[in-house]
Amino acid sequence: MKIVVLVKEVPDTYGDRKLSLETGLADRGASETVLDEIGERSLEVALSFADKHPGTEVVVLSMAPEGSAATVRKGLAMGAASAVHVADPELVGADLGLTAEVLAAAVQRTGFDLVIAGNLSTDGTGGVIPAMVAELLGVPQLTALVAVEITDGSVSGTRATDAGTMQVSAPLPAVISITEAMPDARFPNFKGIMAAKKKPFETVTLADLAIDAADPAAARSIVLAIAEKPPRSAGTKIVDEGDAGEKLADFLAQNRLV
Ligand SMILES: Cc1cc2nc3c(=O)[nH]c(=O)nc-3n(C[C@H](O)[C@H](O)[C@H](O)COP(=O)(O)OP(=O)(O)OC[C@H]3O[C@@H](n4cnc5c(N)ncnc54)[C@H](O)[C@@H]3O)c2cc1C
């Protein structure tokens, strides 16, 4: 069984996250960059299965700037057998379509029985990459799983919706996306960090994947304008002088909230 886990480098959610107002890209200098937590949870799903099923090969795959190798390597320290890092200057500002095209081509090149992704990244928050990758690979996808069971020929799991839960299943090969409700990931230990230095780490370019980022025939989206979020205003304070209820009702009515 070969499991490819899609992991993304993101600005640390505990830090000060900013957009560059010149490029629209994440301002990587504004905060620490980390492996997205949802990617770590996806990797944990694969590693937990591999722990109990010898012969399982877990590969981490990321499309990220050249300087992100150390972040991708964390996946190896956690326990993945190998890593593939797609890095190419032509990928700066890649939209969802190009990202999915690149990831699907890299997954195809690596070979796979199962692809595990997060349902939503913490920076781009597009939430569609796993579905696009599944479509391009021509395999089924199970979305937003809160529990996963992998067998030799199939993957099944639980989807939680506002109305209840549903059990879903798909034959392999398949793509699944998981949510933050999945268990926390393991921490890399010293042995894992040392072992990671000797594990296969492949850097792949667009030429290796035979993809042209500027292909005029491909549908690509571009950023037209960028604006910073306006600072939050202080809000309205209602002091109770015996008439707070009335003032509150007036405030709600004025703001068309009732
Ligand atoms: C040089 C360079 C600069 C980049 N700069 C930015 C940037 O400034 N801001 C930004 O948001 N993105 C950036 N990216 C990454 C890329 O453009 C986005 O990953 C992509 O658009 C996906 O958007 P999303 O996070 O909204 O996807 P979502 O659909 O929200 O992601 C869901 C899941 O898909 C998988 N996934 C998504 N993206 C990747 C990826 N790149 N590699 C592996 N798995 C992935 C993960 O499992 C993730 O949990 C950059 C990439 C490169 C190579």
TrEMBL record:
Any single GO CC term annotated in Swiss-Prot or TrEMBL for this entry: cytosol
Domain of life from the UniProt record: Bacteria
Residue span(s) of domain Electron transfer flavoprotein alpha/beta-subunit N-terminal: 23-213
Key words of the record: Electron transport, Transport
GO molecular function per UniProt: electron transfer activity
Family, per entry: Belongs to the ETF beta-subunit/FixA family.
PANTHER family tied to this protein: ELECTRON TRANSFER FLAVOPROTEIN BETA-SUBUNIT (PTHR21294), ELECTRON TRANSFER FLAVOPROTEIN SUBUNIT BETA (PTHR21294:SF8)
Purpose: The electron transfer flavoprotein serves as a specific electron acceptor for other dehydrogenases. It transfers the electrons to the main respiratory chain via ETF-ubiquinone oxidoreductase (ETF dehydrogenase).
Identification of the protein by name: Electron transfer flavoprotein subunit beta
